[in-house]
Design brief:
Layout (H helix, E strand, L loop, with lengths): L1 E5 L27 E5 L2 E5 L4 E11 L4 E11 L5 E14 L4 E11 L4 E5 L3 E4 L2 E4 L3 E5 L4 E5 L3 E3 L8 E3 L3 E3 L1
Antiparallel strand pairs: 1-2, 2-4, 3-4, 4-5, 5-6, 6-7, 7-8, 7-9, 8-11, 9-10, 10-13, 11-12, 14-15
Length: 172
């Protein structure tokens, strides 16, 4: 089964002005690309505002792909994505940025742009690897990572000795 879902607006895309103060142009409001969800089985519960996907689940929004055995998608009252919970061999790929994350469980909050990884989480950024933490929180919109529990990070320097992380920022 394939489900198409519009994720709507990101929290930081719309200006904080009241609607009456805006002109009729839409240049300051940016639509997110569609989100495609593939799964062997789908259970849509419209009254509860959630959908459960199981078996070979794949979610793609054009910049990020998530694979898992099972996933629950939560919707707002106006039928927009609010949260995705994934379980079982979770793999998240952001190929353009060279990032890959794996975990037993992941929660993605659409509004805040945060991905929380638990159950043996590993985050790979290029050749660099973050592991052994009990919880890794990745903030998509501002490229920040927060860990809980004793973490190990393996940094592989480039030929010039610099460490490249987060899609090209040079950190030493």
């Amino acid at each position: 089964a394939m489900i198409w879902v519009s994720s709507g607006l990101r929290a930081n895309d719309a200006a904080a002005e009241p609607a009456g103060n805006k002109d009729s142009t839409t240049e300051d409001v940016k639509e997110e690309p569609q989100t495609d969800i593939f799964a062997d089985n789908v259970d849509m519960d419209f009254q509860a505002g959630k959908a459960t996907f199981s078996g070979n689940v794949v979610v793609s929004d054009g910049t990020m792909t998530l694979n898992a055995k099972r996933m629950i998608v939560h919707f707002t009252e106006d039928k927009k994505l609010s949260k995705i919970e994934a379980d079982g061999n979770v793999v998240i790929l952001q190929p353009k940025e060279g990032r890959r994350a794996t975990a037993g469980h992941a929660t993605y909050d659409i509004k805040t742009g945060t991905v929380v990884l638990t159950e043996n989480p590993i985050l790979e950024m290029g050749d660099n690897r973050l592991q052994n933490a009990t919880k890794i929180t990745y903030f998509r919109d501002n490229e920040r990572v927060l860990t809980e529990g004793r973490a190990k990070i393996q940094l592989i320097p480039e030929g010039d000795g610099k460490i490249e992380m987060f899609g090209g920022n040079d950190n030493q």
